[in-house]
């Protein structure tokens, strides 16, 4: 997507107002205490069909503010994760003798994308009238637990953890950005890039490109939060493990991380 | 009393017994129950020639669209694993077997999910691969790459048409796995390169492809023998 086209869309009042309307529907669900019901029947079309009649009663202005906040909060979280990845790869590429020449093209490509994501998210936030959060101060040793810039294996371990976290974190924010279709699509487009990165880094570590069960694949205990819940084989009541077993069933779906779970993981590396 | 749906390929069958996979509660259960009323068997009566299945409106249309793409991917990998190209490495065999598993799971998931929500379920489609040589490594890998990239672009482009946040999350759970597949296939084709997320699919903003349904229909249409329409999205 052309960023100018996106920004033009974002700055169009009609576009935003129109998009906010659908979010009201979602707010309304929780207002009426139906959030749990929706969660328990994720594939029940009835839940969707039941909501429009209720949407009329909502205070439109109040909800627009609420959803703008949910939207920009999601983008701020994404920006923190992109700041983290961008700085990590820049430092890795700058560390003498760390990344073997054969692997440098891969990390230069990943680094290029993370850098672009930072710029893109900052522009998007600005266009929404929100000041992009400042870059945190990172400590990629996590208080001395890792030595990623002198030990290439550890560099790969954390790269895998960051990419797999990114995939789950973006996915977890889908509901918060869906009111704005332009932002939703861009977020999806970043999300799949993170997944391509994750698959590549995982395979460089002799893992499969996808996550089977909650096993990150020869990962230290400190990263287990990244994979917690990935063993899920129940998608809206459908048992994905029936046909070929739980490993394949869980790998066929990546799970979400909530905003607070993603923040907790990123927080390990923020001073 | 027989249910009637409009499809063009006579003889296609649907296994509605899979409805049981969905444990719907509340309103969803009521909806699922309604669809069963007046339906005493699993046979479908096909109307005369020339009537083509339409994917439908709203979220149902998007789900059927995803189901069509997953049917295609599952069908392709089923053929690959039933006839591995000669000289295939153990790594490649493992990857294609995993992809076969994942896509069949996706396909069967959508069938169960849509069947649980509506009677407007896309029938089993028929496919053709006129330009694919399943005995040739390059041909199989190139087709896999095209299918996975197309899948990613399709989900990325269709997300904005989904109104139910729960469906959106499910689509998100699947599309990232498709992207993981695409990355692996691309890396096998050109190891050590930047192709896993190459400049041919990722733009200067670091964004992956997102394509509209009508563009996906153009890209994947050559593989799909069974005609269908999606009038809401301009596919007819």
Provide an overview of this structure.
The complex is a heterodimer of chains A (271) and B (236). By secondary structure, chain A is an all-alpha fold. Chain A has 13 helices and two strands. A two-stranded antiparallel ribbon of chain A has the order 1-2. In chain A, strand 1 (234-235) and strand 2 form a beta hairpin. Chain A is globular. With 236 residues, chain B is mainly alpha-helical. Helix content of chain B is 50%, strand content 3%. Chain B has helices at 26-36, 58-81, 90-117, 137-158, 165-189, 213-220; strands at 3-4, 44-45, 53-54, 228-229. In chain B, the strands form two sheets. In chain B, strands 1-2 form a two-stranded parallel sheet. In chain B, strands 3-4 form a two-stranded parallel ribbon. In chain B, helix 4 (137-158) runs antiparallel to helix 5 (165-189). Chain B starts with a strand and ends in a 7-residue tail after the last strand. Mean pLDDT of chain B is 84; it is low at 1-48. At the A-B interface, helix 3, helix 4, helix 7, helix 8 and helix 10 of A face helix 1, helix 2, helix 3, helix 4 and helix 5 of B.
